[in-house]
Design brief:
Blueprint lengths: L1 H14 L3 H5 L3 H6 E7 L2 E7 L5 H15 L6 E6 L4 E13 L1 H5 L9 E15 L2 E14 L22 H15 L6 H9 L1 H28 L7
Antiparallel strand pairs: 1-2, 2-6, 3-4, 4-5, 5-6
Helix pairs in contact: 1-8, 4-8
């Protein structure tokens, strides 16, 4: 149970409502987690493969990567079966509410949502009976041109797999406060605009966390599924 609690604490710190939906609290997932380490932009999970050989695990994960990393934006940077190491470059596409549209909801020309694309690396290390997933967010790939986040140099610092921090939001909003000094926007409008910052990054960081958990459960199921070659 202690291993499962580590995962649950992570997910609940992001958004508690997803705990049962994502993990389903089943014993298979609980027993699979050997170790979990969550840093600001990196998650490392070591997972029990229930007696599977290194070759079996690698083949299963290689199949999972082929299915899930098949777009032009994804690149397999290393695929060494003998060493048991695979490194894949991918992109997380996240959406968030446009604070300017929330401030001026009747201006239909202003988009209601924007996209944030983040580059990530998924490093997979395989041994007999276990494997390790290392998921790292390493940069911003692209922001919508008109995006409010695009002009703020503190945007990347607000990306945090442990949840949004007050310190990062203060720095993010301080940048806008300096910009607002040259703006004709009223005091109440400015305060309202700044109040949207934390919910925006809460949503972004939530989606990132749940993306990892979803991939974890998907890989775990493929590794542990029984082969059916008698067709």
């Amino acid at each position: 149970m202690k291993k499962l609690i580590l995962i649950l604490l992570f997910v609940s710190s992001v958004q508690q409502v997803y705990c049962q939906d994502i993990l389903n609290l089943d014993s298979e997932i609980e027993d699979s987690i050997l170790n979990l380490d969550i840093k600001e932009k990196k998650i490392t999970a070591t997972i029990n493969a229930n007696g599977k050989s290194k070759s079996e695990i690698y083949s299963s994960i290689n199949r999972w990567v082929s299915v899930n990393y098949n777009s032009a934006n994804n690149v397999i940077q290393m695929n060494d079966k003998e060493a048991g190491i695979m490194i894949v470059k991918g992109i997380n596409t996240l959406t968030y509410d446009n604070p300017t549209r929330k401030l001026y909801p009747n201006v239909k020309q202003v988009p209601s949502q924007f996209e944030l694309l983040l580059n990530h690396l998924l490093e997979i290390k395989v041994r007999d009976n276990k494997y390790r997933l290392i998921y790292t967010i390493n940069s911003i790939s692209r922001l919508t041109t008109q995006s409010d986040l695009k002009g703020n140099p503190n945007t990347y610092d607000c990306i945090n797999l442990n949840g949004t921090t007050d310190e990062s939001i203060v720095k993010f909003n301080n940048y806008w406060k300096e910009i607002f000094k040259k703006s004709m926007m009223g005091k109440k409008k400015k305060a309202k605009y700044l109040s949207y910052s934390k919910p925006i990054f809460d949503k972004i960081n939530t989606e990132l966390g749940l993306s990892f958990v979803s991939n974890f459960t998907s890989i775990n199921k493929m590794v542990n599924e029984t082969s059916d070659d008698d067709w």
